[in-house]
Amino acid sequence: MAEPSKRDVHGHLEESADRPLRIGMLAPPWFAIPPAGYGGIEAMVAGLVDGLVARGHQVTLIGAGEHKTAAQRFCAVFSEPPSSRLGEPMPEVLHAAAAAALFERDDLDVIHDHTLAGPLLARGRAVPTVVTAHGPVVGEPGDYLVALGPTVDVVAISWAQRRLRPEVNWLTTVHNGIDVASFPMGKGDGGYLLFLGRFTPDKGAHLAIDVARATGRRLVLAGKVNEAAEKAYFLDAVAPRLRRGIEYVGEADAATKRELLGAAEALLFPVCWEEPFGLVMVESMACGTPVVALRRGSVPEIVVHGETGFVVDSLDQLVHAVAAVGSLDRRRCRSRAELFDNARMVAGYEACYRALVDGRELSRGARPDDPMLVPAHAARAAARRMPSLHHLGRTESGVRPAPGRKPGRPSQLPRTSL
Length: 418
Hints:
Strand order of the largest sheet: 3-2-1-4-5-6-7
CATH superfamily of the largest domain: Glycogen Phosphorylase B
Strand content: 15-25%
């Protein structure tokens, strides 16, 4: 059991680089943690919780279903995850409201929120709230994050995501991670290409089928078809194309997913939107399987073109890339995946928490897992040394400040990432 947070005579937290933190973790209500099958956010939360506990921190996890993580305290708002109601607002709102009340009872250092509605309750909260942007940050989802302003500190899951909406109150960037050791190295001897993911137009299963047919290769498709939109897309764009050599095997659980990835010659990832982080690409490489993907969103940050797969710009190029996957070294794929291991993700988030708890900013040029942090008072002092250039409408870097912002304010200093 980790020691509780120590406070000085004024009630303020004592600063200590190795003091265990008391962390409140709010997961979405839709699936168990970790999930039996689909549930990328839930899988990420499970890995993060277990890693934080292993590093000596106290974690209060709020989710749904049974307690299957190492969190010292687990609170289930729903005894059974309301998976069949995914997309309805009320389960999410109820979950957030219950979590806020539960968190108020604990003496927490920081709250990490992975839900949609939960961040609304961060305003006025004394404890800092970290929000991971798991989804899109353009359109209304991005407007929402911008509207939250400084009430939350937002973590991007890729540089590509962060660039799309720079006005969000970004804290840093931490790539998602997996337990690489739990993915056995495969031989790729199954004689098929693989598509693994949700069945929506954005994921591009229809393009995967086109690629397989153009190359005369066998294709196995696996993934979730539960929601109304998924069913409509599957019936319209996928089912009519199923035939000999193009096979749908249903939603894959954890064991089946590893078997499919390990035996596949390549994973097809013909994503049709700015995917913030495609975790399945890392899982594929962990099994030694190269990834053939369209150049959208985070893909170039994850796949090394010509080494661990191919990153291309058109359907024709996908077809040509499939023909070349046999030349790639599956061991290099595995090595690349190790850069996205859970341990690195956990270290990154731990640094984020400490930066907020200790009242510090991540320093310019530091990685999230780098101990080089700048105390807030030093940041303010640096800001006070900069006014001589402000009347010229520029900063020391030569960049004109954004309209309506005062350059040099500590809360707006550049924050760094991986």
